[in-house]
Design brief:
The complex is a heterodimer of chains A (271) and B (281).
Chain A lengths: L12 E14 L2 E14 L3 E5 L6 H9 L6 E6 L2 E2 L7 E4 L11 H11 L4 H14 L15 H13 L5 E5 L7 H18 L2 E6 L2 H7 L2 E5 L6 E6 L11 H28 L1
Helix pairs in contact in A: 2-3, 2-4
Chain B lengths: L1 H34 L11 H12 L12 H5 L3 H33 L1 H14 L8 H8 L3 H25 L3 H9 L4 H38 L5 H10 L3 H29 L10
Classes of the chains: A alpha/beta (271), B mainly alpha (281).
Chain lengths: 271, 281
């Protein structure tokens, strides 16, 4: 069996979302960002959350991360109710969010320093990650000197340093060019297999979700609900030109387009 | 390679000519105008005369005696080195007091909304008062000598440092705070490793503006409250109609200001070497 195939969920839930609602209030208007979301993610699973912008997919990820708490419902991650952000749910942001005043090595070491690891231990962990991401020559550079793809590799390395069982990724490759994007997707899949992480990955790219995910969670435009959960039971690496890929892509495109049209209609109604 | 070097030498020369042509021609015109007594030499002395006066102002008055002082001490025993030191010392101490009070207050006000709301109204009322307007009060409170000078100078440095520090802390990009919290940072770590460095560009701007205002204040303070320093010296020279010494003093003030600003700018570039728009080396 292919090494890649060994990955995938083992059925033990690491995230349990039950009847979660999230309502934002502003200027006497109520926006229901999430409605009645129920979803279980098992340990080692790669889940993509797919939908047009405004469908609440980032809100859902932020809720798991603990940046926004649900208005109602229960959200349990790593056997604990989520009440605040924490290093057991490492996040990778679209804007990289590297600290520009720290060098590449300092950025990766930051989470370890907070954990009060010894200098030796920190150094050896950082060195190993730099090596793995081919960043050793850039260890003393500042983020401004790096390309977008390299910055995102540093950001992934920084969250891996924490040894968190899961990675939450908010459109991490959205700002990258197509080639860099596809090479980072490959790299991410390798990391997923090697480190046995659970990955929750928000994207609006249909192709990306099929390339990466064990399951694709398609969301509806306001209110954000789960439209459908589509399993992708195909071994990695997945060939984007194969017939199954193209037909799945068509199926998902139809679903997302429906929501896209609803969002455009809603926006023109507001005017 | 050789060609390019030649080319760059030529552009260097061109650049040199470009940057000096206006000041040099101005000096020539000034010299000629003064030599032909277009204006009274008391109103406008020739630049050569100013330069000679400047040398006289700078050089030691006593002949060198190895038995009495070291050579270095003798070299700096003239009037100008003393004035220069006195002015620098005042602006340095005053700036240290002003910035030393403004920086922690600004950090607290930027970080804690409650403290901001407590202090902000008072600051908004006091801030528009120019430091110079505090001259009468400073003499009433502190008499003459260095204390009122320190008061004025620190006041001048205080508000620019305070306002910039507050806005630096309040404008920290939320994404950095989220990233730090996600990595498990405590409040203390968040403040020292994320908020402080993120606010650094603003804080340094405040320090640079602050020392500029402090430098204005030191000259004013020396004109009214003390009897040495560059500000005092040019006012004293006016009583003797020594316009050449006034101009020599002014040029010295300008050079000191330039030196201070250059040092600040170097520190700035070093501390912000991570910042976008800064050249990497």
């Amino acid at each position: 069996m292919d090494a890649m195939a060994a990955a995938g969920g083992n059925g033990v839930p690491i995230v349990r979302i039950e009847k979660v609602n999230k309502v934002f209030r502003s200027d006497n208007r109520e926006i229901v960002a999430l409605r009645d979301i129920t979803l279980e993610i098992s340990r080692g699973e790669f889940v993509c959350i797919l939908g047009p912008s405004g469908c609440g997919k980032s809100t859902l990820l932020n809720a798991i991360a603990g940046f926004t708490l649900p208005s109602s419902g229960t959200l349990i991650a790593n056997d604990r109710e989520v009440t605040a952000p924490g290093p057991d749910r490492a996040m990778v942001f679209q804007e990289y969010a590297l600290f520009p005043w720290m060098t590449v090595a300092e950025n990766i070491a930051f989470g370890l320093e907070i954990k009060n690891l010894s200098k030796m231990e920190t150094r050896s962990r950082v060195d190993a990650l730099l090596e793995k991401f081919q960043l050793t020559d850039f260890r003393d550079r500042f983020p401004k000197d790096l390309s977008g793809g390299m910055r995102q590799r540093v950001a992934i390395a920084r969250s891996l340093a924490l040894d968190s069982p899961m990675l939450l990724m908010d459109e991490p490759f959205g700002a990258l060019d197509a080639l860099t994007r596809s090479s980072l997707q490959d790299e991410l899949l390798r990391i997923w297999v090697e480190f046995k992480k659970t990955i929750v990955f928000v994207t609006h790219s249909i192709q990306e979700s099929i390339v990466l995910a064990d399951r694709v969670v398609v969301m509806t435009y306001r209110p954000g609900t789960i439209k459908k959960i589509v399993p992708v039971n195909i071994l990695h690496p997945r060939d984007i030109s194969s017939p199954w890929f193209i037909s799945l892509q068509q199926e998902l495109t139809e679903m997302v387009m429906e929501e896209q049209e609803r969002s455009q209609k809603a926006e023109s109604d507001m005017k | 390679m050789h060609d390019r070097r030649k080319h760059s030498a030529a552009t260097l020369l061109k650049h040199l000519v470009h940057s000096t042509i206006i000041p040099v021609s101005l000096l020539v015109v000034w010299e000629v105008v003064s030599r032909y007594h277009v204006f009274s030499p008391q109103a406008l002395p020739a630049p050569s005369q100013v330069f000679l006066k400047w040398l006289e102002y700078a050089r030691p008055h006593e002949p060198y005696e190895a038995a009495r002082t070291s050579y270095i001490a003798w070299l700096f025993s003239g009037e100008l080195p003393h004035d220069l030191w006195a002015t620098f010392f005042r602006v340095f101490i005053g700036f240290l007091i002003g910035a030393g009070l403004a920086l922690p207050l600004g950090l607290f006000m930027g970080n804690f909304e409650r403290i901001y709301q407590l202090f902000n109204p008072l600051i908004q009322v006091l801030r528009p008062i120019p430091p110079i307007a505090y001259v009468p009060l400073s003499i009433l409170w502190f008499g003459l000598g260095n204390p009122p000078a320190f008061f004025l100078i620190s006041l001048g440095a205080f508000f620019p440092v305070l306002m910039n520090t507050i806005s630096g802390v309040r404008n920290v990009d939320a994404i950095y705070i989220r990233a730090a919290l996600n990595l498990g940072a405590s409040r203390m770590t968040l403040f020292s490793r994320v908020i402080m460095p993120s606010a650094m560009p603003h804080i340094l701007t405040g320090l640079r503006v602050g020392i500029g205002v402090a430098f204005i204040c030191v000259i004013v303070a020396e004109m009214i409250a003390v009897n040495n320093g560059l500000g005092y010296r040019i006012l004293e020279a006016r009583e003797f109609f020594w316009s050449d010494k006034i101009i020599a003093g002014m040029i010295t003030i300008g050079l000191l200001g330039l030196a201070i600003d250059t040092v600040m700018s170097r520190i700035n570039n070093y501390l912000l070497r991570w910042h976008r728009g800064m050249e990497s080396s």
